[in-house]
Amino acid sequence: MKAAGAPGSGPGKLTTAQQEYVVRRLAAFDSPLAIARSVREEFGIDITRNSIWRYDPTRYPKCAARWKALFYAAREAMLRNKGQAAALDRAVRLRGRTRAALRTLDAHADDMLEQLLRRIEAGAPPPGAPQRAERPLTDAERSRAIVALLRKTGMLDADEGAAG
User: Fold this and answer.
1) How far is residue 147's CA from residue 159's CA, in Å, rounded to a whole number?
2) Tens digit of pLDDT per residue, the chain (164 long)?
3) Rounded distance, CA 20 to CA 43, Å?
4) What share of the chain is helix, strand, coil (3-state, %, to 5)?
5) Which of 15, 22, 87, 157 could lock onto 82 through a cystine, CB 3.0 to 4.6 A?
6) Using CA atoms, how far apart are residues 91 and 30, in angstroms rounded to an integer?
7) Distance from the first to the final alpha carbon of the chain
8) Nearest 5 degrees, angle CA 94-CA 99-CA 105?
């Protein structure tokens, strides 16, 4: 299956509704990569990022007049509804921070959890904790430490885990 917009793939792979979807997402400052993923997930169509740029009149001067009009109308409506550029800027920054945090968490979560579990199993104190006497931790101490960690990371509410 050739991707929409790839050389030799032929015109008209996207329906008009799908093309409008792409234009509205571009007007909302979504990245071409995010739009391509979304089109693949929602419609089952592979489309290249370069093909998506062709619907953005700010980047592609030969953009069709109907997509240009829709793009600017959608962007104006979005800015008006979002409280102008300040709210939009906050939303864009928050979205970027969220993506960065999730990428970092995905990249490091498994390793950090494995290290933590090894330390707990070995009875070692957490990094930066005062050194304890040379005795193994009890199961109750381990349980309290795990519950405290889960509460600190927000994975456990304050009222949960109180029985242990």
Assistant:
1) 11
2) 445 544 444 445 899 999 999 999 999 889 999 999 999 999 999 999 989 999 999 999 899 999 999 999 998 888 777 665 566 677 777 888 888 888 887 777 778 778 878 877 787 766 667 665 667 778 888 888 888 888 888 777 766 655 54
3) 13
4) 60, 0, 40
5) 87
6) 11
7) 56
8) 120
Distance between CA 77 and CA 6 in Å, rounded?
32
| SS3 call for 4 | strand
Q: Which amino acid, 106?
A: D
Let me know: does 58 contact 16? Beta carbons within 8 Å.
Answer: no
Helix and strand element counts for the chain (H, E) = 6, 0
Helices (H), 44-128: 49-53, 65-81, 84-122
Q: What's this model's pTM, rounded to 2 decimal places?
A: 0.47
